[in-house]
User: What shape does this take?
Amino acid sequence: MKIICIGRNFSDHAKELNNAQPTEPVVFLKPDTALLRNNDPFFIPDFSNDVHHEVELIVKINRLGKNIQPQFANKYFDEIGLGIDFTARDLQDDLKGKGLPWEKSKAFDSSAVISKNFINKSAFEKINNIDFHLEVNGNKVQTGNTNQMLFNIEELICYVSKYFTLKIGDLIYTGTPSGVGKVNINDELVGYLGSTKMFDFKVK
Assistant: This one.
């Protein structure tokens, strides 16, 4: 099982981090040890003083695929979830500044929150018009909609499958809207897909 993550897929998020808007998807991977399941608490790692939340819609792949064509991309997923791509921003900035890979800042243990449940895509009127948001301590801090994505779900599936064979159970984290910010001990993070609560956990 692979965790495939897409960076800079919302223009406002790219702007808030002073990154150029990409002309093609930015792709990186996380290992399965990055998953944080079942509303387990997130423990801030001792190697960072600036871990940021990035709420993201997740697509679960349901069949084997390589070089998937656009007209077939919708057949490769049935379920949609919600998660967080935790980022050690201070470590990432240091690594990027040195021109080094930044997996250590993105792919560390428990950096990929995943909702307990997934929702069948048939529950949504339009896949490319799904609202989602994140609340921290009761305050809405990130709000997004799939219609704001620079590259939509089907485009991401096609693009990723050019480079990596997609397998059943693979997860695609599709990018985060603006509003990312630092998490602190005792914060409570609650994520919603539409009006459905998808996760609710504490930071330790």
Remarks:
- The chain has a mean pLDDT of 95.
- The chain is about 15% helix and 35% strand.
